[in-house]
Amino acid sequence: MPQIQANGIQIEYEAHGNPADPALLLIMGLGAQLTLWPIELVEALVARGYYVIRHDNRDIGLSQKFSDHGVPDFRRVALMRLFGLRARLPYRLTDMADDAVALLDELGIGRAHVVGGSMGGMIAQLVAVNHPHKVQTLTSIFSTTGNRRLPGPRKEAMQALLARAPADASLEQVIPIGIKVARAIGSPAYPTPEDRLRERIARDYHRSFFPEGAARQIAAIMDDGDRRKRLKRITAPTLVIHGVDDPLVPVEGGRDTAKAIPGAKLHEIPGMGHDLPLELVDEIADAIAGHARS
Question: Which of 4, 37, 145, 189 is most buried, most CB within 10 Å of its CB?
Answer without folding.
Answer: 145
